[in-house]
Amino acid sequence: MKNIKLTIEYDGKRYLGWQRLGNSEKTIQGKIEQIITQMTGEKIEIVGSGRTDGGTHAKGQVANFKTNSPLSTQEMIEFFNRYLPKDIVVKKAEEVSERFHARYNAVGKRYSYHVWNNPIPSAFERQYSFHHPQQLDLDKMNQACQKLIGTHDFIGFSALKKTKKSTVRTINELTIHQEGSLLQFTFVGDGFLHKMVRIIVGTLLEIGAGRLAPTAIDDVFNHKLREHAGETAPAHGLFLEEVFYKSQK
Amino acid sequence: MKNIKLTIEYDGKRYLGWQRLGNSEKTIQGKIEQIITQMTGEKIEIVGSGRTDGGTHAKGQVANFKTNSPLSTQEMIEFFNRYLPKDIVVKKAEEVSERFHARYNAVGKRYSYHVWNNPIPSAFERQYSFHHPQQLDLDKMNQACQKLIGTHDFIGFSALKKTKKSTVRTINELTIHQEGSLLQFTFVGDGFLHKMVRIIVGTLLEIGAGRLAPTAIDDVFNHKLREHAGETAPAHGLFLEEVFYKSQK
């Protein structure tokens, strides 16, 4: 049996998110599994590196599946991109070791979040960035970023209720890049809790707008309470950019 | 009476083009006139710098209209962007001399055309660039660009039938900029005939793919025949970037 690793790009606008639900029509996983069944005749479950929320985009989601198909990976790519809806693209298909597991073997992820920071909205950015019309104090936001980098219990920056699993994560990189009216937040870390990136962005925006002080970050860490953080920034500004694996194949 | 100059951005995907037709619902001009009527109570016709085809985008279309409205231009911008569909944005509104006419006074335009040149399609560029999977010979395309720059009768590069109006135009600048898989064609000229940019791009792509020689450009100029040029590139890769006026106000 072959184990196939896929690198997938999608415009999440029309979908309920990565994870297949009852109705496979509206999820990325469901769409891809449908095409695999068409392609191989096999009924297969694919393993994603993790879920993405409804409306969230991806430039480098990773998934794997096992198949007896005689097709080459090049033929698979062509089949996927012919039959998938145009807002889902398989960028790569590679045969990997049978032990490769897209979720268990992921050692880190890179996300980006885009904010359109201009009183005038953008007809083109509207679907891929959050419109924040008020001016932002980037210095304060960068101060807050420094507090977030490192290893912390991020439960207060997540949509999780109490859980037995560890909510300690490490953010290795958190930067804000400004290009004209577009702010691009980049997050690199070993893993991210449910809605963690969006809640952190929402909190940073409230700090930039002066509604919260940079010390709000410390409050969330100290009290571990979601209420101390800012609003959750909307899903359509978020991109899963890359999933990292040890250089095993 | 005030004369108001608007600078307008739109994602042309959902529209039949700039020019109002019977059914105002589906054109940019129709949508904007509808909002002006809501805003001022006046039934007004706006003058655009020129038409854009169905599906074509704009980052800097210019139009003007005359009104007795007491609203400030700032209030107008806010009204427009509150009530227009989100894929049409008024970026600027300025009070200009009563003689200003968006079409007659335009002295030049800048267009861009975007091509996604990669065997793998893009989930994000698909709506804003033409997917051309085959490799292109940029040197040959640049040779052809040199032949197009200058003053010529461009009738063979237009969708026009015989016409009494002059079809001589001047292209001042025609460049191809490559950034990763994205090719951006930039056209600056004193005016462009119907579908001229898209037919030139289609011809340049056939030259790049080796189906036509760079001398095909000379053939079109010599014979003045549409048949000697390439296919019309699709509308969704085209952006009206800027309209130039003499610095009158």
UniProtKB/TrEMBL annotation, chains A, B:
Keyword tRNA processing: yes
Coiled-coil ranges (or none): none
GO MF annotation terms: RNA binding; tRNA pseudouridine(38-40) synthase activity
InterPro entries associated with the record: PsdUridine_synth_cat_dom_sf, PsdUridine_synth_TruA, PsdUridine_synth_TruA_a/b_dom, PsdUridine_synth_TruA_C, TruA/RsuA/RluB/E/F_N
Residues in Pseudouridine synthase I TruA alpha/beta domain copies: 8-105, 144-245
Pfam families per record: PseudoU_synth_1
Active site (catalytic residues): 53
Reactions accelerated catalytically: uridine(38/39/40) in tRNA = pseudouridine(38/39/40) in tRNA
Domain of life of the source: Bacteria
EC number: 5.4.99.12
A Gene Ontology biological process term: tRNA pseudouridine synthesis
Sequence positions that bind substrate: 111
UniProt KW keywords: Isomerase, tRNA processing
PANTHER family named among the record's database cross-references: PSEUDOURIDYLATE SYNTHASE, TRNA PSEUDOURIDINE SYNTHASE-LIKE 1
HAMAP family with a match to the protein in the record: TruA
Family as reported in the entry's similarity comment: Belongs to the tRNA pseudouridine synthase TruA family.
Biological function: Formation of pseudouridine at positions 38, 39 and 40 in the anticodon stem and loop of transfer RNAs.
NCBIfam families, A to Z: hisT_truA
Subunit structure: Homodimer.
Protein name: tRNA pseudouridine synthase A
Gene: truA2
